[in-house]
Write a structure and sequence with these properties.
alpha+beta; 2 domains; 35% helix
């Protein structure tokens, strides 16, 4: 009988478990957030051989041509997180890859866990067009 009293006192009740799980999720999220600001930084990535929306397989040159641009201009893709990156930051990375006198034009955008890691899952693809 004595051991039964110790057993029941040492276990949490069903009401305390959801609170404990919430605290564990908050601590896990905070640890990931503090893991480094660079974890969420946008970066240029390889443009996959997918058409707009990821429906058809196309080469990068065909994707740019479908957007009405010269196939000689290779598209620029940037991985980013919508939670940690402003649209101007993404466009600035793409603009840095365009030639002088050209500006990036958004061709395709969406979640792409093949080209981008889990913490920065959105891939935006731009073509460089003359002003």
């Amino acid at each position: 009988m004595h051991s039964r009293a110790l057993y029941s006192a040492s276990h949490t009740t069903g009401e305390e478990l959801p609170a404990l799980i919430r605290v564990r999720h908050i601590v896990t999220f905070a640890a990931l957030a503090l893991a480094g600001c660079n974890t969420f930084a946008p970066f240029e990535t390889q443009t996959p051989n997918l058409g707009p929306g990821g429906q058809r397989e196309e080469t990068a040159q065909q994707m740019v041509a479908a957007a009405g641009q010269s196939p000689a201009n290779a598209p620029v893709s940037v991985c980013y997180s919508r939670l940690a990156t402003a649209p101007d930051q993404v466009k600035a990375i793409a603009a840095a890859e365009c030639d002088k006198g050209e500006t990036p034009k958004l061709v395709d955008q969406g979640i792409d866990l093949v080209a981008c890691p889990l913490l920065v899952p959105v891939r935006a693809t731009f073509s460089c067009v003359a002003h």
